[in-house]
Structure formats: C-alpha cells, structure tokens
Amino acid sequence: MRDPVIETIQNNPAYKELRRKRNRLGFSLTLLMLVVYYGYVALIAFDKELLATPIGAGVTTVGIPIGMGVIIFSVIITGLYVRRANSEFDQLTRDILKGVKS
Predict the structure, then answer these.
(1) Does pTM surpass 0.85?
(2) Distance of alpha carbon 94 from alpha carbon 102, whole angstroms
(3) N or C: which end of the chain has fewer CB within 10 A?
C-alpha cells in the first residue's frame, strides 16, 4: 500500500533535483575526504622519515601540522556541506513541501 503523498513527492521534479544535487555533493565530499585521510595514512605507512622530520630546533615534527591539516580539512568540508544544505537544499525542500500542501 503506497501513500499518495509520498508518490507525489517522489514524482516531483524538484525532489529529483534535490536528490541528484545532494547525492553528487555528498559523493564528491566523501571522495575528497577519503583521498585526504588515506593519503595521510599512506604517507605514514610509506614515508615515516618525512613525517618524523623535526620543524626547526623544536620537538614538533612535520607530521603534526599535516595531521592537523587533515582535521581542519574535515571541518571545512563539513562546513561547506552544512552551508549548502542550509541554503540551496532547504529551499528546494520548502518548494517540494509547498507543492504537496497545495
């Protein structure tokens, strides 16, 4: 037994556009995150000496800022997704709901 409201939403072109855009963005950001994260892990696995190189005369190594960069990158791409979701995706969702209510 299918709900007519759900069928109306699924047949709405704005809903199809929302799904397409959201899936494309999610896939792209996921791929970027995987490349950055597994690139860092591969660097740890295959070039430990580079990451162990001290910065200046201190005890901090090159691996610390690179690791922090991975964390900062993940925060940035999360922010990009949230920003787009709160603007474009929310507007499309409102348009879809208006079509269902009328």
Answers:
(1) no
(2) 12
(3) N
Alpha helices in the chain (DSSP H): 4-11, 13-46, 48-51, 63-84, 90-101
- Distance (Å) of CA 57 to CA 53, 60, 94: 11, 9, 57
Quick check: helix, strand or coil at residue 55? coil
pLDDT for residue 32 is more than 90: yes
Contact 6, 93 (CB under 8 A): no
Quote the Cα angle for 79-96-17, to 5°: 65
> What gap in Å lies between CA 64 and CA 43, rounded to an integer?
13
pLDDT digits (tens, 9 = 90+) for 64-97: 999 999 999 999 999 999 999 999 999 888 888 8
Domain range annotation of the chain: 4-101
Residue 41 CB-half CA count within 13 A: 6
pLDDT digits (tens, 9 = 90+) for 36-73: 999 999 999 999 999 999 998 888 999 999 999 999 99
